[in-house]
Amino acid sequence: xxxxxxxxxxxxxxxxxxxxxxxxxxxxxxxxxxxxxIKNAKESEVASKQNAYYPKIDIGASYKNxxxxxxxQIEDTYALYGKFEVDIYDGGVKSALHEKAKNELLSTTHDxxxxxxxxSLEITKGFYTxxxxxxxxxxxxxxxxxxxxxxxxxxxxYQARLATQDSVERLQAAYDxxxxxxxxxxxxxxxxxxxxxxxxxxxxxxxxxxxxxxxNSLEYEQSDSIKSLSYQEIAIKRGAEAQDAIYYxxxxxxxxxxxxxYGTTTPNNPLEIDKQNVAMIxxxxxxxxxxxxxxxxxxxxxxxxxxxxxxxxxxNEQKTEQKIALQRVKSQKLKxxxxxxxxxxxxxxxxxxxxxxxxxxxxxVTYLDALSAKTEAMxxxxxxxxxxxxxxxxxxxxxxxxxxxxIE
Length: 408
Description:
Distance between the termini: 39 Å
Number of helices: 8
Largest sheet: 4 strands, antiparallel
Order of helices and strands: HEHHEEHHEHEEHH
């Protein structure tokens, strides 16, 4: 009964594909969530700059008390007022700041997308690293099982005085070495899995093999990181324009309506009024500020130039990385072909040597060498398959593509 339950256990373990893991991470990764909040904040800032074009209306109240008032003064005055204010012309400051905020929002949006793409690549690397470690673990467990059988067989020969103690000790040492390497691999697997779970935002039971589409070449597309810098450069230039607009005239229209109430009055004060409306249009222009605004503009222009140089470098860097990534894919395919040939040869050789070892035609040194070669060839071949998938992911990343769109 227990054996039957053990065999059914894998049916209840949910293996997750790379696409499933990425989709979950997009919704639950804390770094991505923080980027979303930053973008939302920029959206609110854009709305604020947009609303700055509309008139401003204030209301207020005041109370004035004059102690030792003269015969022509009122001790207590109460006022309730409403104020309407609108900028008829501000030299283009609001427009420049609004454009600055919009470009900052676009920069933040592309920064969020690049963070998402970088996370996708890191998760993909972790995903296939774990699968590669599992393949190496399987090869090591197979080698351990083979050594266990041979160790048991040689120990029986030793007890029957048909084998030397040296033969037993050599196999025992090889067996213990496999146990040590298995434990080391197990630690690597646990570490890689925990880090992947941190990136994804949940526990992962098992991984389902996923493959990327094959590729020969893709057209270069500017990464979201560079797009983010481009909009950041434009935003800084718009900020410089806002500084420049300070030197242009600004025209403002104001209208204030006030309702008054008074405390004790006397016949000697005939000047009291109960309501008043004041309309005013004003023009203001900065003639001299000791170059404060112009120097601020100069600093912003220099910052924009610095970002432009970063854009140039990042563009060349991405194109270079794309070429290297494509070569990595081609190289990895050749490695797979070589690793497969090595696995076929070492597996065939091990079968022959194992039979000869059982027949005591070859010694245990030859057997252990053949087993080690087969184990390493198996692990190398499996790992090379997963390294090809990582190579694909790196190539898609530096081609400016979304990884999830190329998963089969």
